[in-house]
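Researcher: Can you fold this with magnesium ion in place?
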Amino acid sequence: MPAKPFPELSESQTSDLKESLLQWTLANGLVMYPPNFQDFSANNAPITLFPTPLPKSSFQNAQDVQKLFNELYINLILKEKSWLIDILRKLSKFDADFTGKLFEVYEKAIEQSPNKKLIQPLSLGLFRSDYMVHDTTNEIKQIEFNTVSVSFGGLSTKVGELHTYLNKSGYYDSDYSYQYYDDEEIPISNSINELAQGLADANYYYNDETKSTKTVVLIVVQPGERNCFDQRHIEYALLKNHGIKTYRVTLEDVEAKTTVNDSKLYIKATMDEVSVVYYRSGYAPSDYEVNPEKTWAARLFLEKSKAIKSPSVLTQLSGAKKIQQILTKEEIIKQFLPDISETDLEKILSTFVAIYPLDDTPEGQTAKKLALEQPEKFVLKPQREGGGNNIYKENIPGFLKNIDEKEWGAYILMELIEPPKHKNKIIRNNDIYNEDIISELGIFGTILFNEDSGKILTNNNAGWLLRSKFSSSNEGGVAAGFGCVDNIYLYE
Amino acid sequence: MPAKPFPELSESQTSDLKESLLQWTLANGLVMYPPNFQDFSANNAPITLFPTPLPKSSFQNAQDVQKLFNELYINLILKEKSWLIDILRKLSKFDADFTGKLFEVYEKAIEQSPNKKLIQPLSLGLFRSDYMVHDTTNEIKQIEFNTVSVSFGGLSTKVGELHTYLNKSGYYDSDYSYQYYDDEEIPISNSINELAQGLADANYYYNDETKSTKTVVLIVVQPGERNCFDQRHIEYALLKNHGIKTYRVTLEDVEAKTTVNDSKLYIKATMDEVSVVYYRSGYAPSDYEVNPEKTWAARLFLEKSKAIKSPSVLTQLSGAKKIQQILTKEEIIKQFLPDISETDLEKILSTFVAIYPLDDTPEGQTAKKLALEQPEKFVLKPQREGGGNNIYKENIPGFLKNIDEKEWGAYILMELIEPPKHKNKIIRNNDIYNEDIISELGIFGTILFNEDSGKILTNNNAGWLLRSKFSSSNEGGVAAGFGCVDNIYLYE
Ligand SMILES: Nc1ncnc2c1ncn2[C@@H]1O[C@H](COP(=O)(O)OP(=O)(O)OP(=O)(O)O)[C@@H](O)[C@H]1O
Ligand SMILES: Nc1ncnc2c1ncn2[C@@H]1O[C@H](COP(=O)(O)OP(=O)(O)OP(=O)(O)O)[C@@H](O)[C@H]1O
Ligand SMILES: [Mg+2]
Ligand SMILES: [Mg+2]
Ligand SMILES: [Mg+2]
Ligand SMILES: [Mg+2]
């Protein structure tokens, strides 16, 4: 069965829907702070009016491979640490100011630890693997694998609840007030609870496998975070479902607000012991820019502590675009997931598009030619997170020519995925936009592992996120103002 | 055990608490639209930082008498309708423009109905009985009994959840991050669910005792309602807990948006049948002022329909201050609640302060003297709802002298209650106020009854509301900007 078309509403129906939608977002925390905000006032987050169609099989495949991907990335650390470190060392040379600094934190933390070993072998991954559906085949194709500060797990649950509310209230029916979608067609991501569960798992293992509510989770946040409500929903779930308290601190305030005693990390004001440091900052150069000395010192200080990091510096670095490129090779996958079944291997491989290095290898040589001669098929990516860093299509040749060819190795060249366009509508503040949109599906996963023993303690799926943006725009960051939070409408 | 003192927090602790409090309100719909609002942006509702102490026994007494009060007020209609109507007819003369208009709606509705009988004998009361605790005795003393458009059942639940969150997160502890209050000490009002249950009960009986989700609830709202989120929470619960949809309409739009067929009320756009008309408007003259003809016609139109009204015009009118005055007499209580036990009777009577008529009866004569000679002990109340209408203390003599003595009978003279002052703090937008506050406890109740058969179908308690205001201000309306939403801290 093909997907049902989007609801076609009259002007007055759209206006009714809009009023109910806006009030629902404000009554249920589907909100963001606007630019230059005041603490006491929030706006609706940018969202779609309707859920966006996604083939059920595509969704299922994305769910199916999540735990494999979780394991694949942490096996870089568990199984081939020296190989990973060699690569990261090379990357650090290209990108001394950021990758290099992070790598330095990793090395210093070890060097400064007793017996040159990190005091806390446990590490928590809260990951999100992002895909687009390839238009003609419905295959999911991986955009990237995020290993740090994955966002919108909070608002994703909320937008699913909102679309469900609108659907059940009859706002999607243009004739009567019937449900337009069946309940199962618009599932709600359980990411709030699942991500909170991931943090609770780490807290549990930190406390020698007891459910302690005495230790707390420290969330490292950006100053003036406009998307704090996304994070807050996870905090509230952590307290409600598990009785675990959270503290929020900026990198700059780490020194003033926390202290270490016998390697244990404490909140100074209350002397609460921190079991998990959860980074929702620290993933981009700008997070260290205002006060580099203090913020880099803070990162090192936390890394050396006994608190479980989500993620550890090494886990964060393993999400580098360069690693993603290397991992597209079958033999590498087999090496890192030796026990993988043939079916699973195929499933994983089917999610890859071509990603090339831009170095002196034969493959790199070919890629350089492609980048210059057929740029319209590609996106060029540096070792960065957070959006706004990629170079698209016809901008690639000019960009490359402007930098020394020796620097090219810092980039990867990725085939562009062509997702289907949809006629959904985006609402931002009061304004409804009617342009075509394209969507990116993110699957959350949580994995807790022991870097010393190589043991994986938990490995779970943790809900999803659908983000949509105008098909005319290259990037899709919601907080940055290009995209919006969406939800899936599953069809066969 | 006396009440614990309010938490004493340092400046930095207060600032941490404030940030978490504000973000919680915005993430959980403890919000209001500010004046001159835009649809897509809401502010925190004005609330207290801490729950306010209330003796457990006072709270228990207020809970205990609620069902009796529910029954007492509807028995005016069920048992002595002609007596009630006589009084209302007299009141209508004093207050032709409002009470008179409402009474006219009642009379016309009957006159224009087949067999001169309202087509819908069922009527739903969503009531709130308001009290202050008398400082020296801890006795609860009734301020008034509201029979129409009782508000803050939505935000009351939310503020209880917020205080619980802050308490469990340790924000109330000035030394560590312990819970300052035990869980049982700050209970959460279940008013959202209970008020939704009341509406669901009416929907059930409308549909001949079946749980239909085909009929809907029509909420009559004020245009530009800033407190809409308070109402929305009840709507969401009605949909979530009972699958019942709601529509919102202003009195002015009733004609355009609804229609009647065979006495049944329908939403024009969807042809959904309305089981219950729930008034969150229509209780004050200003609700009819902009377009009197249309709005009064709308009220009559709805009254004649088969939908169950919450409240019917007669139920609304039975909440008149004049009735409240009459009901303070023991013999009247016994007349309306013939089966009441001695204990219950005492409990009810103990909630009354002196309320006098200002008429030509001997009691009225005494009252007139009191009003002029000892005004500082009294508040003078007209037949109005919604706040801002009373005359306090030394303003009474001047006010009375300015109007014809024949008009005095329209007012009641009520002894002032002296509640204890508390050192709680109020936050409005970003600002924290440190002045002394006094609190008013409201107990919600729902009652569904049949005006023809005299039968009471359901009668329930439905949670509570604590509202607080600066002790320096006479009135306490939250939406009007004088007061704030609070929650109770129970102590023995
Ligand atoms: N291969 C591709 N085909 C099509 N679009 C792509 C591709 N790679 C990236 N994009 C688009 O560019 C956006 C940013 O790319 P990517 O996610 O790799 O960068 P990032 O800096 O890691 O951003 P973030 O971590 O904030 O998501 C994607 O969300 C997607 O919209
Ligand atoms: N007897 C009293 N003693 C002390 N304060 C009183 C008394 N009566 C009224 N007040 C104060 O005045 C306020 C308004 O009075 P009341 O509730 O009777 O008026 P209203 O117009 O019905 O308001 P609303 O329906 O909006 O609550 C009360 O909330 C209370 O703060
Ligand atoms: Mg991305
Ligand atoms: Mg990324
Ligand atoms: Mg009142
Ligand atoms: Mg009142």
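Model: Folded with magnesium ion in place. The mean pLDDT of chain B is 96.
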